[in-house]
């Protein structure tokens, strides 16, 4: 029996063991239906994408393998696949080092930990925009750092003048640049922020959890130009690359600080100085299966497809002269109708969500899935035009 037919018969055995009318069978069916929400063409509520089928095979493989990369010497095949993926991302982002994480909350924490360990500045301050993800201030609290929020401009990007002034007052340990804010998808001016960080001897971390995917599209990667100069970058394939959670990477310029003071006698190698502990193929086999079965080009095609739909949606809203709208380069469109209307029913059915841009409440549409389309969203909004 080949390995693949073994997987099929395993699935078949599990399914046939379930009595059709058992409550658990119904619950499984309901769970599957609930998750299909992300495959609907009207899904644009949040950054959770429809999962690519090859990635599901990867999840299954990861479950069957269940190796622990803390003992990577036991799993040469899995280790080779992990390295192959890390090399590919390192080349793409022009960063020499990388590791997989369980999400960008961990990536941001790992990056700021490294920044703190290496900083020669006397302050404990970290700057980022007021639209930076909440995991940044959470990481600062864990690390005993002081996060100070810099105001944003009308496009939701960090105000670079205010950032420079703040740096002149207190040189920070790190500046966090967001490439794709959670609220409106804005990309902070990357080259300017990196230059400011260099001027003040500060670490520059780019939180590209959402926007980092653009790097895979030749058509859209220019929005991230300069990113190679950052000290660290995090990116979440589980947001904008059709991957199941958890799948996230942190890339960086300098190798991790020495962890030789951590002595684990039952492991053959010292663990890396990262937040994460045990992990296996669940972090990267789905991504690997997507790459080998669908190909790199399909990632790029799907990004372009998502952004085309975002463009169509924004274009139609722009025609409503009395509506306010803000289109980002990363596939999030925010808007406010001319008069106060209650769109709670559309939030509850996954078509959109609420957010704040510069303190103002707005509605937010997130093109995270390659299956999401502008048309059903515009149809749902038509009666308010
Ligand atoms: C910009 C940004 N950074 C970081 C995160 C945290 O990522 P995760 O949920 O993978 O921990 C998010 C989550 O939405 C985000 O939008």
Explained architecture:
The structure is a single chain. The chain is globular. A hairpin with a 4-residue loop joins strand 8 and strand 9. A seven-stranded mixed beta sheet has the order 1-7-6-5-4-2-3, with helices on both faces. Helix 10 packs across helix 11 and helix 11 runs parallel beside helix 13. With 385 residues, it is an alpha/beta fold. The model has no long low-confidence stretch (mean pLDDT 95). The protein has two domains: 235 residues, Aspartate Aminotransferase, domain 2, CATH 3.40.640; 89 residues, Aspartate Aminotransferase, domain 1, CATH 3.90.1150.10. It is built from 13 helices and eleven strands. Bound molecules: pyridoxal-5'-phosphate. Pyridoxal-5'-phosphate binds next to helix 5.
């Amino acid at each position: 029996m080949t390995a693949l037919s073994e997987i099929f018969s395993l699935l078949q055995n599990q399914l046939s063991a379930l009595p059709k009318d058992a409550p658990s069978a119904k619950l499984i069916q309901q769970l599957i239906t609930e998750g299909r929400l992300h495959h609907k063409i009207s899904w644009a509520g949040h950054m959770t994408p429809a999962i690519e089928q090859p990635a599901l095979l990867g999840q299954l493989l990861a479950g069957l393998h269940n190796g622990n990369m803390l003992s990577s010497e036991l799993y040469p095949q899995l280790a080779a696949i992990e390295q192959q993926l890390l090399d590919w991302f390192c080349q793409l982002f022009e960063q020499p080092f990388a590791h997989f994480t369980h999400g960008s909350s961990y990536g941001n924490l790992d990056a700021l930990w490294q920044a703190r360990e290496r900083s020669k500045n006397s302050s404990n301050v970290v700057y980022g925009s007021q639209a930076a993800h909440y995991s940044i201030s959470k990481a600062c609290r864990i690390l005993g750092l002081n996060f100070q929020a810099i105001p944003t401009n009308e496009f939701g990007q960090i105000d670079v003048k205010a950032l420079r002034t703040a740096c002149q007052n207190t040189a920070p340990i790190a500046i966090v640049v967001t490439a794709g804010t959670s609220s409106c998808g804005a990309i902070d001016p990357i080259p300017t922020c990196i230059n400011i960080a260099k001027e003040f001897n500060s670490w520059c971390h780019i939180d590209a959890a959402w926007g980092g995917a653009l790097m895979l599209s030749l058509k859209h990667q220019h929005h991230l130009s300069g990113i190679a100069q950052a000290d660290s970058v995090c990116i979440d394939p589980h947001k904008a690359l059709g991957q199941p959670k958890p799948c996230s990477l942190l890339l960086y310029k300098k190798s991790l600080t020495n962890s030789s003071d951590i002595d684990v006698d039952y492991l053959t190698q010292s663990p890396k100085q990262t937040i994460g502990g045990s992990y296996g193929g669940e972090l990267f086999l789905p991504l690997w299966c997507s790459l080998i079965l669908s190909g790199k080009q399909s990632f790029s095609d799907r990004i372009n497809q998502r952004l085309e739909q975002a463009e169509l949606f924004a274009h139609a809203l722009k025609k409503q002269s009395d509506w306010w709208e803000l289109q980002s380069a990363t596939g999030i469109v925010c808007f406010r109708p001319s008069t106060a209307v209650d769109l709670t029913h559309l939030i509850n059915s996954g078509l959109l969500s609420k957010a704040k841009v510069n303190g103002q409440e707005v509605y937010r549409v997130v093109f995270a899935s390659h299956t999401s389309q502008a048309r059903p969203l515009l149809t749902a909004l038509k009666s308010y035009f």
